[in-house]
Amino acid sequence: MSKGKDQKPHIGIFGRKNNGKSSFINTITNQDVAIVSNKAGTTTDPVKKSIEIFGVGPAIIIDTAGIDDKGELGNKRVEKTQQVIKIIDLAILIISRNNFNNYEKKLIGKFNNYSIPYFIIHNKSDIETINKETINKINDYEKTEIINFSTIEPNNIDDVLELIKKTIPETAYQKSSLLKNLISKDDIIMLVTPIDSETPEGRLILPEVMAIRNILDNNCTAIVLQDNEIENFLQKTKIKPNLVITDSQVFNKVKNLIPENIPLTSFSIVLAHYKGDFKNYLKGTPKLSDLKDGDRVLIFESCTHQVNCEDIGRIKIPNWIKKFTGKELSFEVVTGLNKLPRDIKEYAIVIQCGGCVLTRKQIINRLKPAVDAEIPVSNYGMTISYVNGIYKRVIAPFIK
Fold first, then answer.
1. Helix 21-29 and helix 157-167: axis angle, to 10°?
2. Extents of the domains making up the chain
3. Between β-strands 10-15 and 188-192, what pairing exists: parallel, antiparallel or unpaired?
4. Which terminus, N or C, of the chain has the lesser number of Cβ atoms within 10 Å?
5. What are the φ/ψ torsions at residue 280 (nearest 5 degrees)?
6. CA proximity to 20, closest of 112, 127, 117, 116
């Protein structure tokens, strides 16, 4: 199963100004992908570049601004550098000239806070190699892998690439199965894909495409139809699917058309189980019943799109929740990885979209402030199933 562009594992390169971060990237990618200059502070906004790493596959390398930048503009660059930590699967900390102090320690603290694995490159070793005192200082603070490196004499690139492969979590790049433990060879899987004004012109959405490919990879049969075709199809063919996966928006209709003895779930819930914070979704979704008048609901959208009257996150879900609870609620939508308009503790619940274009790490870290603050979290599919009274049925395939 292939990964989308933004679903490749992300590797962030961090360090002080003029430590050779950009040169390091150019060296290991064997391309001039990052601007290199003797002038400190050349890199401003984070810059992404694809790289193929043997044993990992395609990955995204992110070049960041120096963590010791100063001034009003410099502080904004540092802020953007720190924001990168929330979206990466692996960090590489570049030091040089045996400098390891508070700047590096603060970065490592942020890596640990977001559970980001990392290692250290002592760069410019052709000028000054790492000494025992620096190694001891690093290990006294926190034991980690350290490699001496030179972009002028890069004779150990393979060691760096091997360390990347060793350190990056396998969950960041493994081609695991979207429908793992849900389907078996020769199963018949029905995919219900309604076409409305929100459906992309001339194509299916990513979870639908992923499901079809995964069904084929597992030597199963995929039946793809719209919700208004289900009844006629079942009556005419007498086929009993082993599993039905539907768009969450038509739960209310599909639940009455699919017999109770046929497992039913949604693309959004499958995706949540595959790369979302599923355990906390299970805990948080029932908290929808506890919402009170005046509560704020935060909705996370992953991608930007035109808003219309059938918008799932901005129109339908708020209306469904208000109807279900009978409460006067306010809803705020935050797109992509943008900042929150207020403190996370001011929200009663957070609802994450399917996250088609995000990695698992990006979704987990996006929700981390809410989880840490014990704010309930849910996702689109699980929320829709709950307010439509079929929550237990659609999560049942995942509860062993």
1. 100
2. 5-172, 188-270, 279-392
3. unpaired
4. C
5. -75, -25
6. 127
For residue range 234-285, what is the model confidence (pLDDT) as tens digits?
A: 999 999 999 999 999 899 899 999 999 999 999 999 999 998 999 999 999 9
What is d(CA 376, CA 50) in angstroms, rounded to the nearest whole number?
35
Tokens of 76: 């904004």
Q: What 3-state class would DSSP assign to 7?
A: helix
Distance, in Å, from the CA atom of 363 to the CA atom of 301, rounded to the nearest integer, reads 11
Q: Which residue has the tokens 């000494």?
A: 131
Which CATH number does the domain 5-172 belong to among 1.10.3720.10, 3.20.170.30, 3.40.50.300, 2.40.30.10? 3.40.50.300
Higher-pLDDT residue of 191 and 302 is 191
Q: Strand 264-266 vs strand 10-15: parallel, antiparallel, or unpaired?
A: unpaired
Question: Which tokens belong to 25?
Answer: 């990237």
Tokens at residue 84, please? 């990168």
In 10 A of CB 337, how many CB atoms? 15
Going from the C-alpha of 160 to that of each of 24, 29, 87, 149, 292, the distances in angstroms are 11, 11, 21, 9, 53
List all residues 6 or more positions away from 242 whose beta carbon is below 8 Å from its beta carbon.
183, 184, 187, 188, 189, 220, 262, 263
Instruction: Tell me the residue type at 2.
Output: S
Q: What are the residue ranges of helices labelled H in 101-228?
A: 102-113, 132-141, 157-167, 206-217
First-last CA distance in the chain = 25
Pairing of strands 47-53, 57-63: antiparallel
Q: Are 194 and 212 contacting, i.e. CB atoms less than 8 angstroms apart?
A: no
Report whether 168 contacts 9 (CB < 8 A): yes
pLDDT for position 180: 85
3 state SS of 47: strand
- CATH architecture, domain 279-392: 3-Layer(aba) Sandwich (3.40)
Fold match between domain 5-172 and domain 279-392:
yes
